[in-house]
Write a structure and sequence with these properties.
By secondary structure, the chain is of the alpha+beta class. Helices cover about 30% and strands about 15% of the residues. The protein contains 7 helices and 9 strands, in the order βββαααααβββααβββ. It has a 3-stranded antiparallel β-sheet. The termini are far apart. About 5% of the residues have low confidence.
């Protein structure tokens, strides 16, 4: 291998180190406008990679399962248990991200040294177990024809370390989950159409081989569904909570009464709990293709602001703003 140490920078888009001409010449920046980190030695590059994937010291410090025994018959104990489980699972997922990153780096090095690796190994590279990949890199490290600044021996160490972190952290998580006895849990999915789920195994999630990104809400563990709606909003998954009232399933994450009021939206929006004696029906006519269609619109008094608003097709009050007080 060449003794010359080439500059590399962290690529925010490719999520790996890329060769460059050095920090004085390189113009790559992060999304916030700050320069990306640069390294020249294998040690510097490894430290940058570890920091960028959220692992500062390359280990799993701060994620060891606590020896404290929680009283799982109480809501407080269930929440403490789930808080620890959520932290361990997050660490496990970060370790897996780090392993996948190192596997991508190893793949690039393998491509650059394809003449030193058996064709069948290259074809099945993505399916190769990490420990086999590390063993292969230790073998090619002995060959003086290795191309590139990356040290195969160092890459093997990185692969094995990451794999061990993955195994250890997921084992901690499985141990914690073996204590779970079925108390209520709540998980939210991200995005504009996110929902509240009772587990991360909902049949409506994890589709087409892609894992759904969940946020665990351990502070709600052991509580009632109404508590989750009050804090998170009326966005309960009808598959996870088939008996949930319509009021709890027709909104979005973050649309709790407090959040809605803070954004100027009347908390009565989306409600099906209204005084039926206030119902007024109005017939209107609309063009439908070549004919005329008769439509009946229904209006009721909002139980929160008292104003009349139209009901949606689901029978809930249409979203509306808090009426301004008359001077």
């Amino acid at each position: 291998m060449s003794s010359q140490q080439q500059w590399q920078h962290w690529s925010p888009t490719k999520k790996c180190m890329m060769p460059c001409k050095g920090p004085d010449v390189c113009g790559i920046k992060n999304s916030d406008g700050t320069p990306v980190p640069h390294g020249r030695t294998p040690q510097e590059c490894e430290a940058i990679i570890a920091a960028q994937v959220g692992v500062i010291d390359g280990g799993m410090s701060g994620t060891t399962t606590s020896s404290q025994k929680y009283d799982l018959t109480t809501v407080e104990g269930q929440q403490q248990h789930d808080q620890e489980s959520a932290e361990v699972l997050l660490a496990a997922n970060k370790a897996l991200d780090r392993e996948n990153l190192y596997r991508r780096i190893a793949k690039d090095v393998a491509r650059n040294n394809s003449e030193l690796i058996h064709d069948e190994a290259l074809k099945s590279w993505d399916d190769m177990p990490t420990h086999h990949m590390a063993k292969l890199f230790r073998e090619i490290a002995k060959n003086p024809k290795v191309i590139g600044m990356e040290d195969p021996e160092k890459i093997a160490d990185m692969l094995e370390s990451a794999r061990k972190d993955v195994d250890d952290s997921y084992e901690q998580y499985r141990e914690l989950e073996s204590k779970y006895t079925g108390w209520p849990r709540f998980f939210t999915t991200k995005g504009a159409n996110g929902h509240i789920h009772s587990s991360m195994d909902c049949s409506t999630c994890n589709k087409m081989g892609t894992k759904t990104d969940f946020s665990w809400q351990p502070e709600l563990s052991g509580l009632k569904e109404s508590d989750a709606v009050a804090k998170l909003g009326p966005a309960m998954c009808t598959t996870c909570f088939p008996s949930a009232p319509t009021d709890w399933t027709n909104g979005k994450i973050g649309q709790s009464p407090e959040a809605m009021a803070a954004s100027g939206i009347c908390p009565g929006s989306g409600s099906s709990k209204y005084d039926k004696s206030t119902l007024n029906e109005y017939e209107s006519f609309r063009r439908d293709g070549g004919g005329i269609l008769s439509v009946t619109d229904r209006y009721v008094d909002c139980p929160k602001c008292g104003q009349q608003f139209k009901l949606t097709a689901k029978g809930v009050i249409r979203k509306h703003k808090i009426p301004k007080k008359k001077k």
